[in-house]
Amino acid sequence: PITIARHAYGDVYKNVELRVEEPGVAKLVFEGRSGERQEVEIHTFDGGGVIQGMHNTDRSIRSFAHSCFKFAVDTRQDLWFATKDTISKKYDARFREIFEEVYESDYKETFSRLGIEYFYTLIDDAVARVIRSKGGFIWACKNYDGDVMSDMLSTAFGSLAMMTSVLVSPDGKYEYEAAHGTVTRHYYKYLKGEETSTNPMATIFAWSGALRKRGQLDGNEALVRFSDRLEAACLDTLNAGVATKDLVGLMEGVEAKAVNSANFIAEIRRRLEEKME
């Protein structure tokens, strides 16, 4: 797999915006507590338009960098980081600078000892590399890039419902979720008693991931083994060609069989019970 590390703060998700209706001058202004004032002109409008302001903090970027490097060390995988600092020479460049600082000061020797690599490249080059790759690495992205690229990759792997998502805080807290959210249209069909072929894999893996982490934190090896077996049962089911409709058309090397949601879960349960004996 390819792991997308998405910075979950700032960028367009905390932006402020203006819709202007007349000619005028838009400016970016910073007034420091010291009294220092910085001002740059954004654009001189000769008519209507839109303005957007974004921000991020060194502290948040630095904690994100540490999370990425630590995850790479834990999983023994290469780490890529990509922005567009040739265009965004202050905003994106600050991300690149902080990642380089953190790597050089805290992780370079460990990466060398483990035989893994960190490298920075432009986001468009990273996309080209990903398309040609065989996976097995971590791709660190800014907030918006991570949002878009994770959806792209999940579809390339088969379905958005195949993508697991883990929120990791700088102090080591974890939250596991199904990245696709609620499948509203299918849920309404379910309420009417109609059959659906909704893929539950991401939801199951959110639970198994959370249970495994809880087991690791508590020293509960039985819970860790259960989580491992649950995920193995899911993969065995898919490898046998039993899948929901979103995956059947993409499967190769097996005789694919489309089943509804209930039957898919029943197949997973049967294989899990065999592993638990």
Distance between the termini: 29 Å
Main pleated sheet: 4 strands, parallel
| pLDDT < 50 runs, ≥5 residues | none
The helix tally amounts to 9
Report the average pLDDT across residues.
Answer: 92
Strand/helix succession: EEEEEHEHEHEHEEHHHEHEH
Q: What does the oligomeric state look like here? A: single chain
Helix and strand composition category: alpha/beta
Beta content comes to 15-25%
Would you write up a description of this structure?
This protein has about 280 residues and is of the alpha/beta class. It contains nine helices and twelve strands. The protein has helices at about 60-75, 90-115, 125-130, 145-155, 185-190, 200-220, 220-240, 245-250, 260-275, and strands at about 1-5, 15-20, 25-30, 35-45, 50-55, 80-85, 120, 135-140, 165-170, 175-180, 240-245, 255-260. Strands 1-8-6-7 form a four-stranded parallel sheet, sandwiched between helices. A two-stranded antiparallel ribbon has the order 2-5. Strand 11 (about 240-245), helix 8 and strand 12 form a beta-alpha-beta unit. Helix 1 (about 60-75) packs parallel to helix 2, helix 6 packs antiparallel against helix 7 (about 220-240) and helix 7 crosses helix 9. The two termini are about 30 Å apart.
List keywords for this structure.
277 residues; alpha/beta; 12 strands; globular
